[in-house]
What does this fold into?
Amino acid sequence: MGKDESMGIPPRMQDYIDAGERYLAERGRYIREEVKKWKFDTIAVHGLYTVRDAIEDYQGSIIEPIFMSTAQAYRDSDEMAAALAYKIPTWAYSRIANPSTYYYEWTLALLEGYGFEGETSCCSTSSGMSAIMTAVQPFLRVRGHVHEPRNIVATAQCYGGTFQQFTVRLMQERGIEVRWVLDATNLDEWASRIDANTRLVYGELPSNPQLGFFDLRAVADLAHSHELPLIVDSTVATPALLRPICHGADIVVQSATKTLTSSGFGVCGAVIARKNLVTNIDDDQLKADFSLCVKYLQNRDFGPNLHPMQAVMTLNDMRTLRSKIDLMSRSTMKVARFLERHPKIESVQYLGLPDHPLHDLASRYLWLVDAEYDEQYGKPVNRYGHLMSFCVRGGAENARTFFDGLQRIWRATDLGRIKSVATIPAISTHQQQGEAGRSLANIPPHMVRLCVGGEHPDDIIADLDQALSKVGKK
Ligand SMILES: *Cc1c(COP(=O)(O)O)cnc(C)c1O
It folds into this structure.
């Protein structure tokens, strides 16, 4: 016991601690008894920001505050000491916490935890890549000696940046073996990659850009039977279509940069975890509340914090997530059907197309949230998101001719936008990983990735049609 503790907690500090505990108890009650009973859209619009918060703390502002401040001032030394020891809810310093990122975190924790009977929490990050780093690092710690073998098991069909982070930063630079699962629909392959040195199981679904998919529930059960956490990159689905934690995943990573911030205003990320997750790492704090633990300890030391301005801009976009995903999914379906019939298109990959090999599996998991409460539908409805890819007949050169001919659709290394955006993964997002890496991830050179936005689908189809008409005309 330290000297301070043997002297007991000073009365004034105890008052701060008591007030903090009352606040947390009241917040817990509010979440359990009110917020958890709301529909998805209500949570997306309000999150945890209340009229009372606004009136008492933020001069009645109906929009969450953008606190462009580095640090919080304290009344006295006792409050400061309690805050910095994490004995009271506080934001202290914006690398650790901030009122704006607080509301962002709670909205995401509640949306990813929608329909989940347990509790979830969230740690905001500066980007999707830092969300992945934040989620993975704690499980890679040394347990015995520095040279002990460690490995992770992950889907080979994943975002190019993830492939790079795992292959170069973990495997080549730190000697942590990455065991790629090539056919994620084959449970035996997952099982054969796991051994006593495995630290975590990682999967992206639907994957960007190939739309890989796997049986989430079965992979979660497999991971748990080995006392391993399942981490899922759910960027493409968003919580409006899939909430992996409800199907057994322990941690979700989001590149909130994408569909969650469909306006395209900046880069941000999030890690959302269930409380009491599964891991073979002996750390009770980490198990109990993973997000809070990485936020207060690991990320305090690494510093991948989210900017408060970004947090509120993203919150603003997330309020209309469900209806946007519905609209964009329906438009994507229409565009996919058009491309499928076009003579200059070799193949179309979209999970919504009935003859896609993963259509049935994806249909078990991808549902428009709350469709049963929607006047228009009144029953559960499958939606498949707004990411699709296709291959132009005749190879890479034709794909480029088509791509260069696009007029309305933007050519950009981007996705999830309210504006339709297209890219050629082999020369952009998946350029770093080289030919061998691309073939592992199944990215042919003539593949075009298209993310259909909020425009009228007929105008998108017209643009695709005129660009395709330029192919083979030279
Ligand atoms: C873009 C993306 C990332 C990386 O996110 P950033 O916000 O760009 O750092 C990770 N995973 C997927 C699936 C992505 O599409």
User: Anything to note?
Assistant: Residues 127-129, 159, 161-162, 204, 208, 233, 235-236, 255, 257-258, 267, 269 surround pyridoxal-5'-phosphate (CB under 6 Å). The radius of gyration is 23 Å. The first strand starts at residue 120 and ends at 125.
